[in-house]
């Protein structure tokens, strides 16, 4: 099994693997070009976004700067909006539904490390996928931790740290993020 296959399977893997380093370098060069691209260069920006995020649906809108590890591990529905300064560590799959809004400085972390110091010293790491359902609104400054699922139509309050799954149709907030109330749809 390759290091990339281990990474995507959620197993411990070596991020120093040449294939993974090349994929990250490719993403960083594309991100650098995107973040430097003039706002009026719409066709160039659209082409760069398609290259970085081949799994994106229609109507993608990202305000730069934007950062991710690979880009190719993101699956985005239609009409996804990322506000300024968002970060997606996509060492595991990140699946985002349609009509999802991200406030500024949202951070999605699939990357994780062993809890035991000896294992961490080995340099191995792992990842757990993140899933965000359709019609969600993730407020500014939210951090979503590895392995979290946020149900459809839910709203996460600004500044929250989402450490566990959030059901559909709720407003949740805090650190750690917890359900505050159900939403009427």
Automatic annotation (TrEMBL):
Keywords: Acyltransferase, Repeat, Transferase. It holds the Pfam family Hexapep. Gene3D superfamilies: Hexapeptide repeat proteins (2.160.10.10). It is an enzyme of class 2 (transferase). Signal peptide: none annotated. One of its GO terms (molecular function) is acyltransferase activity. Its EC number is 2.3.1.-. Residues 4-58 form the Maltose/galactoside acetyltransferase domain. It comes from the Bacteria. Belongs to the transferase hexapeptide repeat family. This is Acetyltransferase. It comes from Litchfieldella rifensis. The lineage of its organism: Bacteria, Pseudomonadati, Pseudomonadota, Gammaproteobacteria, Oceanospirillales.
């Amino acid at each position: 099994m390759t290091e990339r296959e281990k990474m995507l399977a959620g197993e411990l893997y070596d991020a120093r693997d040449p294939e993974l380093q090349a994929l990250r370098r490719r993403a960083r060069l594309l991100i650098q070009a995107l973040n430097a691209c003039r706002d009026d260069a719409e066709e160039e920006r659209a082409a760069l976004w398609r290259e970085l995020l081949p799994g994106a649906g229609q109507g993608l809108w990202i305000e730069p700067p934007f950062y991710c590890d690979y880009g190719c591990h993101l699956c985005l529905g239609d009409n996804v909006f990322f506000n300024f300064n968002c970060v997606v560590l996509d060492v595991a799959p990140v699946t985002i539904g349609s009509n999802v809004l991200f406030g500024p400085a949202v951070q999605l972390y699939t990357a994780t490390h062993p809890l035991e110091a000896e294992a961490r010293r080995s340099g191995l790491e792992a990842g757990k996928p993140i899933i965000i359902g359709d019609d969600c609104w993730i407020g500014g400054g939210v951090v979503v931790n590895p392995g979290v699922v946020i149900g459809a139509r839910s709203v996460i309050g600004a500044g929250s740290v989402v450490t566990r799954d959030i059901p559909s149709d709720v407003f949740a907030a805090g650190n750690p993020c917890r359900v505050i109330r159900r939403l009427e749809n």
